[in-house]
Structure formats: structure tokens, C-alpha cells
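Hey, sorry to bother you again with one of my protein questions. I've been staring at a protein lately and its backbone has me curious. I owe you a coffee for this, so here goes:
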Amino acid sequence: MKNKNIPAIVTLCAGVIASITCIVNRYNLISTLGIVLCVLIVFYVIGLIVGKIILKTNKVANDAYIEQERIKMKAAKAAAEEEAVSEDGITEASIEEVNDETVVTLQ
């Protein structure tokens, strides 16, 4: 899925920023490793949380879109059934009720 990479991207961006900050401020190697490790862990958890929030938001939006399309299709089907009524008042439902031996044609 598209949301699978969110924690990794957030973690890597935070790690790069932390590393550059430590290099610019001239921290020693042990301090830099400790800081970067803590930053990576914290921002990985934040990335997981953000990924789950985005997944839930997308699911809600997708469900709403599907329901909207379902309503549109029902409305289109109802309009098509109204148009299917011929001059004689025969509908598709009444054609189905006719025995299999009888042939009904609509023009």
C-alpha cells in the first residue's frame, strides 16, 4: 500500500536532520549516535501513528465515496426503469412475469 512507507520516510528525514544538526554543532561521536538513535526511535513511532491516522482517514473517505456512487447507481437504475415503460405500459418487470413460452418484443 501507499501508506507502508510513511514511517520509514518520517524516520529517515528526522535522522538526516538530527545528524546534520549534530555535525554542525560539533558533537562527539558517542553523543551523536545516542541522539540519532533516540530521534530514529521516536520518529519511527510517530510515523506509525501518522500512517494509521492517514489509513483511517482514507478508509472513511473511500467508504463515503462508495456510498455516494451506490446512491447514484440506484438513481440511474430507477431512471432507466422509468424509461423502460413503453407506450403499452409494459415494464421490464412485467416482461419477466410472462411465461417462458410467450415472446414479448418492445420497440
The helical segments are 6-24, 29-83, 92-97. Residues 2-89 form one domain.
